[in-house]
Write a structure and sequence with these properties.
- The protein is of the alpha/beta class and about 270 residues long.
- The chain has nine helices and 15 strands.
- Helix 2 (about 35-45) packs parallel to helix 9.
- The chain is globular.
Length: about 270
């Protein structure tokens, strides 16, 4: 990973938008700081698209799409996107899976969750599970005593043994049925809502994240960025980001926003 200051000036000037993880990328110790929130405002005021791409649940995404200074949000690791049309005063929602399939999956997720709780002592159902529509989130360090890496990997392995996709974030292990992920739903969002072919335009967007579940995004975007705390997952991210900030979490996100300012100097 190269330092963020190595991002070429020509690239910075051509960036059309910023896609970002939320937990431990925008947030700091579980909170969105004034510095990080203001950084989103600055980016959007400058005419750049701002899109959180998160593992957080549909219920949170409803609030984010309506209330935050963002253009849209991708939630549950790519299970859905939401966008609030301010002119029509309407929330648009797109799901990767149909309603019947999502309903049928919920009973399976409950059974798998019970098995994981039996097999991995110390883990818990994530506190935001009640607001989820398509996936299962197992808490390994948000509201429980942090578990060792071996336990975290055991949770993911149990999910995969049930035919689920599984990803490790900085706080949860998320599992779901289906082939969708953060990148596939982000592609769909950009094509359907913004008329942008993300494959053709990937060089004009930055993704910033911090953990293993961001690996597909780090790999896809040639100018992907990790906030400094991404280093704690060294060796556990299949494809690390190309650049890294000097500051951690929300402060690192604000550092990126400042770097993308036309007046930025190193």
């Amino acid at each position: 990973m190269r330092p963020l200051c190595a991002l070429p000036d020509a690239v910075r000037g051509a960036i059309r938008g910023v896609l970002c993880d939320i937990d431990d990328t925008l947030s700091t110790a579980g909170r969105i700081t004034a510095e990080a929130y203001a950084a989103m405002e600055r980016l959007r005021s400058a005419g750049r698209l701002v899109v959180p791409v998160t593992g957080r649940p549909a219920g949170w995404c409803n609030h984010i799409a309506r209330m935050w200074p963002v253009d849209a949000v991708v939630g549950e690791n790519g299970a859905l996107y939401m966008l609030h049309d301010d002119r029509r005063r309407k929330l648009r929602v797109c799901h990767a899976l149909g309603a019947d399939e999502r309903t049928a999956n919920r009973e399976r997720l409950e059974r798998i969750a019970a098995r994981i709780l039996r097999k991995v002592p110390g883990c818990a159902i994530a506190s935001d599970q009640a607001y989820r529509d398509s996936d299962l989130a197992i808490d390994y360090c948000e509201d429980v005593v942090p578990l060792p890496v071996e336990s975290v990997e055991r949770i993911a392995a149990l999910m995969r043994s049930e035919g689920m996709s599984a990803r490790v974030s900085s706080i949860h292990v998320n599992g779901w049925f289906g082939n969708h992920d953060k990148l596939s739903m982000t592609r769909r969002l950009f094509a359907e809502e913004f008329g942008i072919d993300l494959d053709a335009e990937r060089g004009r967007f930055v993704f910033v994240g911090d953990s293993p579940n961001d690996a597909p995004m780090f790999e896809f975007f040639p100018h992907s960025v990790g906030v400094a705390n991404v280093r704690k997952f060294a060796g556990r991210i299949a494809t690390p980001p190309k650049y890294v900030t000097t500051r951690e979490a929300g402060a690192g996100f604000a550092e990126l926003a400042t770097a993308l300012s036309p007046a930025a100097t190193w």
